[in-house]
């Protein structure tokens, strides 16, 4: 969501300024372009040089430092941004914004910008709870400035209360949600996408099971990529990778549970991406108690439901079904016959026989097998990038169907 976005970061003079350095680096790491404006008070806490070096751009503090005769800096800064982020927002600047003051670079640019504004107030708990601060917050909320709730916890003053600058993970999650709400032309807006992920676990007894090497990384990355393109995502997962709140998680263990969950959602879905490594077989019986050690052990297996095939038989023409083929030999041939046999729209074929790609690592190299083109090779790259490619293919599918 942050990739390629222009973020104007406004830093005001609270003790949390040092935390914003790390937050800004995270934004840049995620592909955003960040430019910084600070109040004079903010510059008392962290040197503008730190922000300049890390953002690789000049930091603006003085409204009258007009070094470019072709533009007025604070208006140019305000117009440049796709989104504005005030972090931290002091009680003082909050009050100024509530009453339309424009007495420094930060307040002048914020009054001028037409970009959506996301603010993170952080201050002493009594300042935060003060009636005048509360009224100022309400005024800004009414004017569509997003006010993030600060954390409650140990404050710089040595006691606990509400007003702490939130953890960066929460800020990024909430900010991305805010961005998504403001972008009107996301290609999967209004579409429901189901993703399955992870290796299913087939129980032998209450403490033992059979599984495979799938980590769930690809499926979880596809869920994120679909969310970034505007979809409502249901992630049916057998993996223990954490899932952000914005994605509806259905935790499952066995292939049968996964089948049930997919069945519940498939009819109302626009797309299903079956990236889970579903066990083909399951023990015929599950021991009620932990099995005791014996000289040898034989287990009898029965076939699990073929979820992809079942959904292929139920699929409507307006639904997009994507399956995966993890193979160690004859990869393309197997994937081509799987495409037909399962009535899928695309099979993502991958070679799981190599150590640096496939199961349980961060990279993969795959081939897209479709009905409409020659096999499309996707070179070795991060699973998150492959997830983007898969979702882009689905976007094109909806455009063409
Ligand atoms: C050590 C110290 C820490 C401060 N921390 C905060 C803070 O966390 N939040 C806040 O609203 N004000 C805080 N202040 C007060 C502001 O710095 C002060 O109100 C200042 O005028 C804010 O200016 P600005 O809004 O232009 O950045 C702090 C002041 C000092 C000296």
UniProtKB/TrEMBL annotation:
<keyword id="KW-0436">Ligase</keyword>
<comment type="similarity">
    <text>In the N-terminal section; belongs to the HFCD (homo-oligomeric flavin containing Cys decarboxylase) superfamily.</text>
</comment>
<feature type="domain" description="Flavoprotein">
    <location>
        <begin position="5"/>
        <end position="173"/>
    </location>
</feature>
<keyword id="KW-0285">Flavoprotein</keyword>
<dbReference type="GO" id="GO:0016874">
    <property type="term" value="F:ligase activity"/>
</dbReference>
<comment type="similarity">
    <text>In the C-terminal section; belongs to the PPC synthetase family.</text>
</comment>
<feature type="binding site">
    <location>
        <position position="324"/>
    </location>
    <ligand>
        <name>CTP</name>
    </ligand>
</feature>
<dbReference type="InterPro" id="IPR036551">
    <property type="entry name" value="Flavin_trans-like"/>
</dbReference>
<feature type="binding site">
    <location>
        <position position="338"/>
    </location>
    <ligand>
        <name>CTP</name>
    </ligand>
</feature>
<keyword id="KW-0460">Magnesium</keyword>
<dbReference type="InterPro" id="IPR035929">
    <property type="entry name" value="CoaB-like_sf"/>
</dbReference>
<feature type="domain" description="DNA/pantothenate metabolism flavoprotein C-terminal">
    <location>
        <begin position="188"/>
        <end position="396"/>
    </location>
</feature>
<keyword id="KW-0456">Lyase</keyword>
<feature type="binding site">
    <location>
        <position position="342"/>
    </location>
    <ligand>
        <name>CTP</name>
    </ligand>
</feature>
<dbReference type="InterPro" id="IPR003382">
    <property type="entry name" value="Flavoprotein"/>
</dbReference>
<comment type="function">
    <text>Catalyzes two steps in the biosynthesis of coenzyme A. In the first step cysteine is conjugated to 4'-phosphopantothenate to form 4-phosphopantothenoylcysteine, in the latter compound is decarboxylated to form 4'-phosphopantotheine.</text>
</comment>
<comment type="pathway">
    <text>Cofactor biosynthesis; coenzyme A biosynthesis; CoA from (R)-pantothenate: step 3/5.</text>
</comment>
<protein>
    <recommendedName>
        <fullName>Coenzyme A biosynthesis bifunctional protein CoaBC</fullName>
        <ecNumber>4.1.1.36</ecNumber>
        <ecNumber>6.3.2.5</ecNumber>
    </recommendedName>
</protein>
<dbReference type="InterPro" id="IPR007085">
    <property type="entry name" value="DNA/pantothenate-metab_flavo_C"/>
</dbReference>
<keyword id="KW-0210">Decarboxylase</keyword>
<feature type="region of interest" description="Phosphopantothenate--cysteine ligase">
    <location>
        <begin position="193"/>
        <end position="401"/>
    </location>
</feature>
<comment type="function">
    <text>Catalyzes two sequential steps in the biosynthesis of coenzyme A. In the first step cysteine is conjugated to 4'-phosphopantothenate to form 4-phosphopantothenoylcysteine. In the second step the latter compound is decarboxylated to form 4'-phosphopantotheine.</text>
</comment>
<dbReference type="Pfam" id="PF04127">
    <property type="entry name" value="DFP"/>
</dbReference>
<feature type="binding site">
    <location>
        <begin position="305"/>
        <end position="308"/>
    </location>
    <ligand>
        <name>CTP</name>
    </ligand>
</feature>
<keyword id="KW-0288">FMN</keyword>
<dbReference type="Pfam" id="PF02441">
    <property type="entry name" value="Flavoprotein"/>
</dbReference>
<keyword id="KW-0511">Multifunctional enzyme</keyword>
<feature type="binding site">
    <location>
        <position position="280"/>
    </location>
    <ligand>
        <name>CTP</name>
    </ligand>
</feature>
<dbReference type="InterPro" id="IPR005252">
    <property type="entry name" value="CoaBC"/>
</dbReference>
<keyword id="KW-0479">Metal-binding</keyword>
<feature type="region of interest" description="Phosphopantothenoylcysteine decarboxylase">
    <location>
        <begin position="1"/>
        <end position="192"/>
    </location>
</feature>
<feature type="binding site">
    <location>
        <position position="290"/>
    </location>
    <ligand>
        <name>CTP</name>
    </ligand>
</feature>
<comment type="pathway">
    <text>Cofactor biosynthesis; coenzyme A biosynthesis; CoA from (R)-pantothenate: step 2/5.</text>
</comment>
